[in-house]
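I am still getting used to backbone structure tokens and would like to learn alongside you. Label the sequence line and the structure token line clearly, so we can match residues to local backbone shapes. Would you write everything just below, so we can both look at the same thing?
***
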Amino acid sequence: MTPDTLDELDLRILEQLQQDASITNQELAELVHASPPTCLRRVRRLTESGIIQKQVAIIDPAKVGNTLTAILEITLDVQSAESLQQFEHAIALEAAVLQCYRVSSGPDFILVTQVRDMPAYHALVHRALTAQANVRNVRSFFSIHRSKFNTRVALG
């Protein structure tokens, strides 16, 4: 499937599932004005094609004790394809790293992390970054207020 092969019903289904993926197939069908079997087939097709990657519960980090969000700029000494992949592989193993972006024109990576407190942040930086010989620079920004957070992808 490609973006060009998505029709209006696919887009309505995706919009609804981004709002609340826990609704039943019957509820979804009613919301998008389609039959339940059609919705079920469409959701399966969207999942099998990889457009729907997974369905998750979004947790309020503060309510589980993770009150510190840090955004990190990472610069590596060596930017070879192998070095970049090694860094990405190591970071993928860190549960506190929520997002990792390889970026251009500036640092090599931007990380979004969520930890309990400053000691947990220091432990993460030591374990995941300063222990790696190829990390040249780490610049950290600490969130003092989150004014917007959304997982929704704009469609159409």
In short: The two ends are 15 Å apart (CA to CA). The beta strands are 68-76, 97-102, 109-115, 135-142.
